[in-house]
């Protein structure tokens, strides 16, 4: 059975994409810990990050770093948080989000009731920052 992320990647379910390349996508989570909380996901459905080929893991981290720089720039954060948990969806993903302190690393504080317009605006902010940082070729249209 396909993971929910595979369904988002294939277009079966909607997603707010901020990055698309042949191996990796990034889209906003539906339950953010902060505005701009983005998931970096390989297109290939692999449950555990420890099972990724090293080259794909490196690519995920390259994209996570680019998105991290974009959330810092776009949201004026002092840092970008980075977290791999892997229990909620059996498809490798890296959480990247604006962070001012450690409280935002608590995924139990995620807000599944974030209004659509807030998420839409956050996605637009990240796309704009990624373009400004020179990654426009990987950024989908708004």
Automatic annotation (TrEMBL):
<dbReference type="GO" id="GO:0003824">
    <property type="term" value="F:catalytic activity"/>
</dbReference>
<dbReference type="InterPro" id="IPR011146">
    <property type="entry name" value="HIT-like"/>
</dbReference>
<dbReference type="GO" id="GO:0009117">
    <property type="term" value="P:nucleotide metabolic process"/>
</dbReference>
<feature type="domain" description="HIT">
    <location>
        <begin position="4"/>
        <end position="109"/>
    </location>
</feature>
<dbReference type="Pfam" id="PF01230">
    <property type="entry name" value="HIT"/>
</dbReference>
<feature type="active site" description="Tele-AMP-histidine intermediate">
    <location>
        <position position="93"/>
    </location>
</feature>
<dbReference type="InterPro" id="IPR001310">
    <property type="entry name" value="Histidine_triad_HIT"/>
</dbReference>
<feature type="short sequence motif" description="Histidine triad motif">
    <location>
        <begin position="91"/>
        <end position="95"/>
    </location>
</feature>
<dbReference type="InterPro" id="IPR036265">
    <property type="entry name" value="HIT-like_sf"/>
</dbReference>
<protein>
    <submittedName>
        <fullName>HIT family protein</fullName>
    </submittedName>
</protein>
<dbReference type="InterPro" id="IPR019808">
    <property type="entry name" value="Histidine_triad_CS"/>
</dbReference>
């Amino acid at each position: 059975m396909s993971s929910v992320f595979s369904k988002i990647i294939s277009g079966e379910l909607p997603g707010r994409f901020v990055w698309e390349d042949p191996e990796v996508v990034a889209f906003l989570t539906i339950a953010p810990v902060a505005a701009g909380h983005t998931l970096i996901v390989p297109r290939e459905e692999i449950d555990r990050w420890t099972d990724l080929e090293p080259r794909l893991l490196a690519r995920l981290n390259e994209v996570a770093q680019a998105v991290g720089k974009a959330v810092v720039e776009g949201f004026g954060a002092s840092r970008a948080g980075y977290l791999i948990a892997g229990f909620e969806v059996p498809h490798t993903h890296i959480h990247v989000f604006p962070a001012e302190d450690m409280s935002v690393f608590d995924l139990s504080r995620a807000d599944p009731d974030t209004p659509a317009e807030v998420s839409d605006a956050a996605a637009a902010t990240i796309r704009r920052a990624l373009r400004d940082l020179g990654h426009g070729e990987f950024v989908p249209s708004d």
